[in-house]
Amino acid sequence: MRETLIEIARLGRHSKSRRHDFLLSEPCHWAPQTIMCPETGMFFTDNSAWILICDVLEQNPETFQEVVLEKPPGELAYATVHTLRNGTRVYMKVQLSRGKARARSFHISEEE
Predict the structure, then answer these.
(1) 37 contacts 53 by C-beta, under 8 angstroms
(2) 3 state DSSP class of 91
(3) What contacts 24+ positions apart, CB below 8 Å, involve 11-15?
(4) Torsion of CA 36, 5, 66, 45, to 10 degrees
(5) In 38-102, which ranges are continuous DSSP H helix?
(6) By Cβ atoms counted within 10 A, which residue in 8, 18, 39, 62 is the most buried?
(7) Domain definitions of the chain by residue range
(8) 40-84 pLDDT, tens per residue?
(9) Which H or E run includes 10?
(10) DSSP 8-class letter at 70
(11) What number of other Cβ atoms are within 10 A of residue 107's Cβ?
(12) Each residue of 20-45: pLDDT tens digit?
């Protein structure tokens, strides 16, 4: 699992090797523009969301849990809830899909 997370982080650092688009076959909840970045005081952008995802993948891979997806059925993804410096909890879910890093979720966590 660790090797996969490192590969997702490596690919996620480059715009041509990452995705976060919504597909019916691979739905995602991508909402970085709704989350305030405590370091900048501005909302996350697509790029800054990917930077955070990759940083967490590299620095805290043990926080990610393997998740079996419903769409596509049986495929694996990796999810975590990361707490920002301002206390906001962000749910992130990523996967390796067709040789690219694929973000399936980046939004405020609904967990308490």
Answers:
(1) no
(2) strand
(3) 11/96, 11/99, 11/100, 11/101, 12/50, 12/53, 12/54, 12/57, 12/94, 12/101, 12/103, 13/50, 13/51, 13/54, 15/47
(4) 20
(5) 46-59
(6) 8
(7) 2-108
(8) 999 999 999 999 999 999 999 999 999 999 998 999 999 999 999
(9) helix 2-12
(10) T
(11) 17
(12) 887 877 888 999 999 999 999 999 99
Cα(18)–Cα(86) distance, rounded to whole angstroms? 27
Give the separation between CA 88 and CA 13, rounded to whole angstroms: 23
| Buried b / exposed e along 76-85 (16+ C-beta atoms within 10 A) | ebbbbebebe
Distances, alpha carbon 13 to alpha carbons 20, 29, 56, 58, 71, in Å: 13, 20, 12, 11, 25
Type of residue found at 91: Y
